[in-house]
Predict the structure.
Amino acid sequence: MTKQRSLQSLQRWVQEVITHPDGIAAGIESPTAKQQIDIDVANIEQVVEPSSRLGSRERLAVYGNAYFARLVECLGEEFPATRFALGEETFESFTFGYVNDSPSSSYSLGCLGERFAQYLTDTRPSDVPKPGWPDFLIDLAKVERTYAEVFDGPGPENLDTLKPEDLQVIPPERVSEIRFVPVPSLRLMEAAFPVHEYVTAVRRDRAPEIPMPAETLLVITRREFVVRRGTVSRAEFQLLRAIIDGNSLGQAIELAAEVMPAGSDDEFAANLSEWFQHWASAGWFLRVELSDS
Amino acid sequence: MTEARLGLPNLGFGVGLRTTHYPHILKHKPDVDWFEIISENYMDSGGRPRQVLEQIVEQYKVVMHGVSLSIGSTDPLNFEYLGKLKTLAEWTNAAWISDHVCWTGVNGLNGHDLLPLPYNEETLRHVVSRIKTAQDFLERPLVLENPSTYVTFTDSTMSEWDFVTRMAEESDCGLLLDVNNVYVSCFNHDLDPEDFIRSLPHERIVQFHLAGHTDCGTHIIDTHDNFVVDKVWELYQLAHKLTGGVSTLLEWDAQIPDFDVVHGEVLKARDLIQDGSVTLDTQSRADADSVASDDPAQGPRRSATVPQPAVFVAAEVE
Ligand SMILES: [Fe+2]
């Protein structure tokens, strides 16, 4: 029998070995593992016992395979459209790389996909012109992660939401002062491809083709516990963004107009009341507030 | 003397609550004795899972089963996690909280697996003290389950059953005996599952788990994707006799069939202990007994045989 080592050393060694991307043998030979237990692959039986049917290394490999397989499978459930777009094998190798790069540090599998879109952004091949195939994948991963967060995060179901008539009681001279309070699930997302349609098609088993690039401005929220998404125009999107950032309607219009082409002021004026009606009926806001109320 | 089941009730024959069955359960309100929920899937939920659970707890008794307590880890206990566990237990009125005799990660990481411990005095002291801390915090006993394992360590100086017995007695916790895990681990480690079951402190067993597994020839993987095999039913009968009967729960986590099939599987346990015999469907037996190919030496990054736990909640999108 070998000398008793600490539980901590054994655990650090096991974790290092079974999460090593190149497998058990490479894990055992890695400096980090050797810092805990200094053995070679040939001496693995000094730590892990063989069974009558299976060697120590194969036994430990059950955990190594399971580690990646389980997390890749969970990511596949969170990112079904990204998986479909990439194909099983490529998705597997991307998520394998991701898990290796960003191992889980949460008690919940719900956090597992948190950084996946960022990982795809960080590893985007720089020689592909934008918007290209990598950008489609990044947008897909972003929208799927957003759906997951909106689905299980705080929602509007037990809250009163803004009604069209709530806007009619605002004195016209004070309309520019109002602040819209969004429902907790409201999210805006800008994509270079119509990824929302792609995701829906995959979820309906329609095997969609990769779409052509098209500016896509998404509003994502939840109603009756189901994620809802829709698209808006550039002007409406910029206005919503400024409103969600906490600006009053007047300030928001100014900020939105700044990033719009000259002459778009008319677009705001012409559409504002229609937008308000839609925001209220779509349940995007809880209420409007006047600073002194 | 310890009261049977630590004084906790025998809830009857329950089913592990899974998202695929939500619509069926809400619509048909099946006559199930109780449900076991995966704690981590609900403790942070602000959406559908939580809303469904609110409806479930109005009609059924629930027990909370966790996979991330990591009671055997040498990392510090996560009190944020324990706090959320306690809050969830309060609002679901959970009959008890269970997890596993295992560790899930160190250095702040979570591998989301139920990793085995070396069974020796150091581990025992460590685990017992953490169970006591967690129980004091939660203000209720923990119920800990024997996991399916695939390796044993040379650092072990005692059997798993001796370890579990001393752990339960010294920390005054309850035990969740997963009969299928006993079968799986004993096959993998060349041990006798009957010895395992006979050697436990039976009065501390609060609950049983039953599940299907995948036989890879050289080892068995705990996949929860099939019917319970006959050998496990035999062990269940033995465990029932030794404990006098405790809450029994069926876990089915991959290739999940219709709710009635899952419920029917746990009701076989009831029939078995009532008439001493159980009729197994021939087709399901053929499936359950078939040998799968999963050669760990080949090192596939991904295979069809993912050991539990792998319970993920997918979003519903319009
Ligand atoms: Fe279990």
